[in-house]
Amino acid sequence: MSWLDHRTGIETAIRNFLYEEIPASSGWHQVFGSIAAFLFLVQAFTGALLAFNYAPTPGDAYNSLRYILTEVTGGHLIRGLHHWGASMMIVVVVLHMTQVFLYGAYKKPREATWLVGVVLLLLTMAYGLTGYLLPWDNRSYWGTVVATQIASGVPLAGPYLSRLLGGEGSVGVVTFARFYGMHVLLLPPATAVLIALHIYLVRKHGVAPAPGDEVRAKKKFYPQQAFKDTVAIFIAFVILLVLAIAARVPLERLADPTDATYIPRPDWYFLFLFQTLKFFKGPLEILGSVVLPGMAVMTLFLIPFLDRSQVMRVTRRTVAIGAVVLAVLGWTGLTVAAVVTTPKADNTVDIDFGAPTDWIGLSPQELAGVGYFRKERCATCHPVGSGKPGVGPDLSSRAIRKSAAWMIEHFKRPEAMVPGTSMPAIQLSDTQLSSLAAFLLKLTPKNADALGNAPDFAVNAALLYQTDNCGACHTTNGVGMKIGPPLNGLARRRTKTWVAQHFENPQALSPNSIMPPYRFSSREMDDMVAYLFTLPD
Amino acid sequence: MPTAPKTDAASSISRRGFYVGIIYGLWSLIAAALSIPAAIYLLIPPRLRKTDEWAEAGDISKLEPRAPVEMVFRRNRVDGWKISSEKTTAWIVKFSDSDVVAYGPQCTHLGCAYHWDDKRNDFLCPCHTSVFGIDGQVISGPAPRSLDRFQTKIEHGKLFLGALGPAKEKS
Fold first, then answer.
1. In this model, does residue A312 exceed pLDDT 90?
2. Residue A383 distance to chain B (closest CA, Å)
3. What is the ipTM of this complex?
4. CB pairs below 8 Å between A and B: how many?
5. What do you get for the CA distance between the two ends of chain A, in Å?
6. Is the overall model pTM greater than 0.90, yes or no?
7. A355, A450 in Cβ contact below 8 A?
8. Measuring CA to CA, how many Å separate A451 from each of A138, A385, A443?
9. Partner residue opposite A73 with nearest CB, options B22, B26, B47
């Protein structure tokens, strides 16, 4: 016995844990509990890391999350792991429950293990509900508004619940603080204790045997089953890592309680509940929001007491299999219906606020320059911000900075300014070339990515803005004339429909306006209005 | 699936070795894939995307030459995810229309606010009696170095101040 073990007993404890006897039938179907426990640890770890750079108050929460995503090194990955880890947690917990259910592993004497498991499922969902609010973007805000409205509709307790959550279906600082407290202070220790209890119960009763196990020799958990658990955990982790690196985590604009056009939607795993609500109108709504989900949870709790039959081979548990198939079909159907029937918001502007949005501050002339830069495919020879060397020089480098006049001459006759260059002349008008030069003057190594992120709708609108010479009357981002009103802050003064109608017939809406009408294609109109509404106040 | 019955004990030992090797290997990979990004996240300072801008201190065209004035202005300080506008002061000395110096408002000894003493024609710190000349150099007292200076820029008679840093020592 080693020195350490003599003093702490740790090695014996680990050995006892690993050399647990398990039934001969144990195998790959029992790996999900381990994956769920592992994912909980990943969530706790990444959550703690996020807390190092997160300010838990509305407004600041959003800004600090954007700071994590755009400025903190590795912040994008840590947030990705936490976000996708939450979704995977739900998937894995449900798979774990399904396996236990199909194999009848909840039966006597393992009822308590099942009950603790159901509570853990509810806790997992509570994380999802409370964590959804924490980014404080439009998506979180409106999703939580719906959730708190549902809570306020609960019979008898409703008004009390809604006061507890910060007021009549409203979401503000109180709601935020409570959700945050739940999410990071109350739920994690509760989960840890219940997971410990859950594992203790599994150990106490042993892993559930299948019919036939009683005559076969038991085996040890380590190393064969531990190997299977490890491989399964590793696969889950690789999926999580790939999602965190490759898939975009949504971050919309800052929560806007006055945004009447926003269509709230919960996270994907709650969509079936969201859809169930639509079937019940008026006073019956309570059925969909509280009664049915409540009954479902009660049924889950009661399963071990409703089904008291002998353990059977899984292939013969036709009723259980039928129940699972029905549940899967029901869930899928409701989720698909929710996705299909939710109208696509007419104003969906695809801006990734998880990435830097420096382009929002560019003048329309500079932003149009981005358009010419793309149209003329300048990036094939001058990669910008990617760090890769190209045929031509890196245009974001300060070392080669030249005046706008020099650049325009160079664009027209490259050879005249740089003898021996292989650059072709750019066939654009003087206005267009000066726009390109203006954009290049704004480019630095720091903002190269951010400016390259400019979405097409904004670039197209800026090109249009330049063609139609809007700047001759209006100011945008501090550039332009002041004959007409400034276009920044338009989003606060007018609606999108108003602006669109105003383009077509200005005098119908503002009789004294000297603005000429503009005939845009519907695509152009969408881009233009979306762009104007994106401008900072 | 019965395997070819070789020496049963030997094959079960090698299989065990395989299991244990995979277990250690995969857990090491997971630990590395979590701890390396975590270390990067916690230990590498964030890249500063927003930099301090120039703040307008005020009109200096009417200032008397070699008569220090304390100017109060607001500047934006970038602090993580927050940009806060804060009130700052600077002692401005105009030597000529193109040569204007802006000193940071704190004594370089222990950070007390000093002031210009008209009678002595010196900057005087009330805490430990450090004295600085109009050029910011230490004349007497415990101050270890000349007064700190803001970067300056003059546009159309208006003074703009940049970052505050120690004065470059004259060689």
1. no
2. 20
3. 0.81
4. 78
5. 71
6. no
7. yes
8. 24, 9, 8
9. B47
